[in-house]
């Protein structure tokens, strides 16, 4: 795990290396930003706030990448498609 700081707020980054990919997640108090490995349908079923970015290999990539999917609970926090991962995390702080 790693500390990821966004706008002076701490988040927890988790990086799991699989045989074929890097599974990345940055977790905040109200939700998390995940790589394309994560499924919004599952987040919706359990009520988690989540935004998804794709084509990322590092936490820094995640902050710069565009949100391509968002759970219903994430949308209720103001997260929208097209915003950056950084912008999504600020709404999860």
Structure, briefly:
28% of the residues lie in helices and 33% in strands.
Description:
The chain is α+β, with helices and mostly antiparallel strands. It has a single domain, classed as Hypothetical protein YunC (Hypothetical protein Ta1206 fold), CATH 3.30.1980. Helix content is 28%, strand content 33%. It has four helices and six strands. The protein has helices at residues 40-46, 59-64, 72-76, 85-92; strands spanning 2-6, 9-17, 22-27, 32-34, 50-53, 67-70. A six-stranded mixed β-sheet has the order 1-2-3-4-5-6. A hairpin with a 2-residue loop joins strand 1 (2-6) and strand 2 (9-17). The mean pLDDT is 97.
Which terms would index this structure?
alpha+beta, six-stranded mixed sheet, Hypothetical protein Ta1206 fold, 6 strands, 93 residues, 4 helices
SSE layout:
Blueprint: E1 2-6, E2 9-17, E3 22-27, E4 32-34, H1 40-46, E5 50-53, H2 59-64, E6 67-70, H3 72-76, H4 85-92
Strand order of the largest sheet: 1-2-3-4-5-6
Assign the CATH topology.
Hypothetical protein Ta1206 fold
Largest sheet: 6 strands, mixed
Order of helices and strands: EEEEHEHEHH
- Rg over CA atoms, rounded to whole Å, is 12 Å
* Outline type: globular
Q: Helical proportion?
A: 25-40%
How many domains make up the 3D coordinates? 1
Q: Strand tally, please?
A: 6
Q: Could you say what the CATH architecture is?
A: 2-Layer Sandwich
Strand content: 25-35%
Summarize model confidence as the mean pLDDT: 97
State the helix count: 4
**Head-to-tail CA distance between termini:** 18 Å
